[in-house]
Amino acid sequence: MRERIQGSILRITLILLFISIIDTLSASQGEIIWKYKTGSQIWSSPCIADDVVYFGSNDGYLYALNAIDASLEWKYYAGNLIYSSPCVTDSSVFFGCWDCFFYCLSREDGSIKWKLLTGNTIFSSPSEADGIVYTGSNDSYLYAIDCSSGGMVWKYKTEGEVQSSPRLKDGIVYFGSWDTNLYALGAIDASLKWQYKTNAPILSSPCITDSLIYIGNFNGSYTDGYLYALRIADGSLKWTYIMDGIIYCSSPSVSDSLVFVGSYDSFIYAINAADGNLVWKYPTGSSISYSSPCIYNGILYTGSDDYYFYAVNINDGTLRWNFQTAGWVFSSPCIYNGAVYFGSCDFNFYALQTDDYTNFRISKTSTKQPLYYISISPNPFSSRLSISLPSSGAIYSLTGQLIMKFPKGKHSLDTSKWKQGVYIVKSGKEMKRVVKVR
Q: Which of 125, 150, 160, 361 could be 85's S-S partner, Cβ–Cβ 3.0 to 4.6 Å?
């Protein structure tokens, strides 16, 4: 009898939990979870790993914050502007600085491992693959650097500043230059695979799909910008789309057969990825100079120079919500556990709720406090689910049926045969909602 009563109480608790989460989500999208004030403008875009968010500020610090509650893990003083966005590996954090150095820090405590001097300031953000980290510099070179030692593997000279951030796919590194070219180099030896000459400098960073690469550029008059779709195999042109304003540093994103990019003419564009035709465009209040769109669960997130951060439906370009900061939003957003993170030139770094924000601590007084202990990825999930529990726990269906028990620690689950729907992960006094799709 006692077990039956406890089972009924658990089922009621889970149902009430689910209802309260749905009510909270519908009412609070775009609201602040937290904000953290730095000492200057934030142009750098965040990188998040294992509940820690990393970003740079123009106060000269590289910050590592707890993504849940904004507590400071550590910060490193480089002493100059940090426009570059960090790249994070298992043990290291990489970024470039306006002092001309490229840095490698310990991910654990922010202590410096090594730094490499380039020939000019660094705006480009790094990418890493197979133990080599790649970055551009305003000295006109793209650098390949050994992650462990900081030794230079190679550097490749272009005829203009390399502010575009490199992207890697299948052993080839792609990047643009102020010399108007998009380059494709062998990642190991810098051998030139192909290059495509556009009609203006490239500051934007490439977006790569299985067969195509998308890149934007600008001209000195700021009157029009081109979005290019090139065939990744040989760099040949598939199509171009001409906008009424330049594509400055905003980089394209691709989702659901659409290419999204921000322009200096103040519009967010959605272009058909196959043929380059306009599907829709959404007007913000000012130019979109630097922020690049991030797509999550059918919603586009991006910043604008009008001080606002936007959430726009990707299917029709209608506004879902916007959020006003007190400065330009140059930083590009990052989504993690249903929250969207970005910096602003008002000196603040923000974490806002999205439609899928589900991290809540269950207590008698509140269901809206952030959850600190259970870690789940991805959420929603389909064929696999990874969970990390602070103590022994279990997964239940929404009706309270026990699905599986676990000891403390990390677990990787094959969920391919699970039914679609909502599940509850419980560990100690903590609960977290997860959703099975497909």
A: 125
